[in-house]
Structures are given as C-alpha cells and as structure tokens.
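Notebook entry, cofactor series.
This is the third protein in the set we're modelling with a bound small molecule. For this one the ligand is nicotinamide-adenine-dinucleotide. I'm keeping the input format identical across the series so the outputs can be compared line by line later. Sequence and SMILES below, as received.
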Amino acid sequence: MSALTNKVAVVTGSGNGIGRATALALAAAGASVTVSDLLVDDGERTVREITDLGGSAIFVETDVALADQAENLIAATVSAFGRLDILVNNAGTGGTSGRLHELDPAEFDRVINVNLRGTFLCSKYALPHFLTQRDGRIINIASTYGIVAAPEAAAYCASKAGIIHLTRQMAVDYGPDRIRVNAICPGYIDTSLGRRASSMSVLEIVAASARREKAAGMQPLGRQGLPAEVASVAVFLAGDGASFMTGSILTVDGGCTTTFNYGEASN
Ligand SMILES: NC(=O)c1ccc[n+]([C@@H]2O[C@H](COP(=O)([O-])OP(=O)(O)OC[C@H]3O[C@@H](n4cnc5c(N)ncnc54)[C@H](O)[C@@H]3O)[C@@H](O)[C@H]2O)c1
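Returned structure with ligand:
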C-alpha cells in the first residue's frame, strides 16, 4: 500500500509546471487526483499521464479566482471520489513588471485574485469536508518572493506574502480540527521556458536562457530547481510523515534566500 492510498487530492493549476508534477507525484503515492486548470488541453494531458501510469484522475476546468468555479471544483471532486483529503493551492500568475506607481490597478487586482483570493476560495470550499472528517491537509504554493522582495513585482510579492500569512492564520484556526495547513516557497524552478519556447523568437529564447543562467548562478546549489523537487515536498506535507507540521513555511529554493545575491531573476 502506498503512502496516500485511499486519499483524494485536488491540485489547482495542474496542467503545467509545479502543479502538474505535484499531481503526478500525489498519484504515484496512491492518491486519486482532481487535476484543475484554466487550460483544458493541458489539464486533460496531465490526467492522461496519470491514468497511463495506472493512477486515478479527473479533470475539472476551473478559474480559481471565481467563487462559483472554486466551489464546483471541490463539489465535483467529492462527487467523483466520495471524499477530499488534500488540497494543493498551486495555481498562480506572475503579473507584469514595473514599479508600483506604474502598475495598473486592474493588473494588481488580477494577480491578487488568482494567487491570494484563489487560495482563499479553494480552501473555503474544501474546509467543510475536512471539518466533517476531522482531517485534511492544505498545501499552499507561495514563493521565495513572499519572503524577500523582488524588484518591480509589487502585486506578485504582496500576493505571495499574503499566502504565507494566510497559511499561518489557517493553521491557528483549524489546528484543533486536525487540519494541517503548510506552505512551500519555491525559488527558481524551471517550468515554463520549455513550454513557451515554441512561441518565442530566437532573441527571446537567448534572453531567457541568459536569465536562467544568471538565476542558477545565484543559488548555493548552482542550478535551477525542477518541478519534481517541489512536488516531492508537497507529497511529504500531504502524508503522515508531516503529522506534527502545521503553519510551516518551507523554502525549496536551492538555498538562494540564504544569500545576498538573490532577487533579480527568480519569481
Ligand atoms: N516556477 C517558479 O520558478 C516558481 C517560483 C516560485 C513560486 N512559483 C509558484 O508556483 C506555482 C506554479 O507555478 P509554475 O511555475 O508551475 O507556473 P506554470 O505557468 O508553469 O503553471 C501554472 C498553471 O496554473 C494555471 N493557472 C493560471 N491561472 C489560473 C487560474 N486563475 N485558475 C486556474 N489555473 C490557473 C496555468 O494555466 C498553468 O497551467 C505558482 O503559484 C507560482 O507562483 C513558481
């Protein structure tokens, strides 16, 4: 029997990147998984990857910033699998760069709505199920940029700092109900370049490669992380090995937040 056999998990934004890797890793650990994303083709691809490996998964198209869709995501999961044990709030957006006085208020709202409100909404609709079971595990994907400030990323930094403190606050409110809430702060993880390269010009690819090299050099481990290296920590937090952990904020960043050099190229 695998560590998460008979457990049911929802992973938001699991059509790509860290969310996809987390959905695959939870399924490999025995959980049934609801894959959800704005992008239907990408989400359905993750489902196929899980089922091809013998796992159990469904796809629910969801914009986490919208209350009715977040509510539907949780309801559809419970309807399909009969329960819910694990919620990974991973869906996120970066936002445009620029200093705060240049930032369009609508863009600020968009980033906060996806990253912070989306985490709030999916948790809000999952928690009644966890309360009934007196068990549940929420893993919020924040960012090292919620701990250290990055240039020209006010909305993103504020949203991720908000997720970190929401994690602690929820841990306080729901600890007595045996619901654990923890956060992961990834550093520079190699997720989107490969996927977007086909739509980039040669110059854009060269610039992105240079940024990646620079970011890799900023980290004590000397390289970018892989989505699977975040996913494995999410699986740990979802499992009984983390049974005395709640309100914890774990950096998975190659050590970059321990140095002075960090800040320019990551997210
Ligand atoms: N990659 C990194 O270096 C890094 C670093 C720190 C934190 N993070 C965080 O990790 C999480 C995943 O990032 P990633 O790099 O894998 O990104 P990604 O772009 O590879 O994947 C994100 C997925 O989320 C989906 N998504 C976006 N908005 C959504 C919404 N409103 N509702 C539902 N799905 C939505 C996208 O369609 C996409 O499939 C994000 O919260 C991000 O902020 C990433």
